[in-house]
Give the backbone structure.
Amino acid sequence: MKVLITVASKHGSTLELGRAIAEALVKRGIAVSFLRPEKVTSLEGLDAVVLGSAVYSNKMLPTMTALGYRWGDRLSALPVYLFCSGPLSANPQAVAQLPLDARILARHIGARSAKLFGGRLRMGELRPAERALMRMGGIPHGDYRDWGAALRWAGQIADDALGGVWAAAPEDPAA
């Protein structure tokens, strides 16, 4: 069983989620390749793919969108799981719905599951213009990623990839 995890991340928060998902799959005996979207040159020999993208201004990063459409036909022939991260809020309603472009991509590639996780904001990682925008918008800094939810989702992916039946959570927009 071989799974590719490819993540588009701007400041590393989404990349950290992708690495945690990869570690959870490896613990279940699944071989994982980890590449940035722009480095994906083939999907040959893969049994499944996990796509991850940071979300800014309610949109996925362009490198993930491009990968999804460039490989759309091949991805739709594989079990694919999509996640995004980005909302900066402790309010569970803030992470209730994927951005529109992610929902459209999930349908296009036939994702078995699409999940939105909270994000992380560290002001020190931002360029001065980004910091100013965050302050003007009153965007709270902090880490809003739900690691337990991410690891539970990774467990569902492992179960599915190893021959189980995907049991999508009710809030899973790809279900």
In short: DSSP finds six helices and eight strands in the chain.
